[in-house]
Amino acid sequence: MTDLLQRVEKSIQNRRLLKHGQAILIGVSGGLDSMVLLHSLHELSSRHQWKLTVAHFNHQLRGRSSDADEKLVRQTAAAMRLPFAAGRANVKEFAKNEKLSIEMAARKLRHDFFRPHGEGTQNPCHCTGTSC
Fold this sequence. Notes:
- By secondary structure, the chain is an alpha/beta fold.
- It has one domain (20-127): HUPs (Rossmann fold), CATH 3.40.50.
- Helix content is 51%, strand content 16%.
- The chain has five helices and four strands.
- The chain has helices at 3-15, 32-48, 64-79, 91-98, 102-114; strands spanning 23-27, 51-58, 84-88, 125-127.
- The chain has a four-stranded parallel sheet, sandwiched between helices.
- Helix 2 (32-48) links the parallel strand 1 (23-27) and strand 2.
- Helix 4 crosses helix 5.
- The longest helix is centred in the N-terminal third of the chain and has 17 residues, at 32-48.
C-alpha cells in the first residue's frame, strides 16, 4: 500500500468517517481531487468491504469540456466495475429563471441530483473531493 493510501485510510479511521461494509456514493467531477478520492476509496474498498457507487453531475457550463469530464468519470467507473449515476442540467438557464448566481444554482441542482441517490437508499454517505 502506498504512503498516500495509508494516510487516507488512517485519516478515515481516526475521524470515523466510514464504517466497515458501508455503502458510499462518491461525487466525482473528473477533477484531480475527486479522481484521487475515487481511486483511493476504490483501492481501500475491498479491505473495508465498502460498496461504492460513482455519481457525476454535468453542469453543462463548459460545453465539450463538461461532456469530456462526464465521459472520463463514466469510463473510470466502468473500468473499476462500479455502479455509475449521471445527471445533467443547464445551470445558466436555471440560474436565470430562479434569479440565482451560477454558483448557487449549480449547488442546488447538484444537491437535488445527489439527494435521491443517498437518502433512503443504500448510499447514505456522500463523499466528494472536498468533504464526506
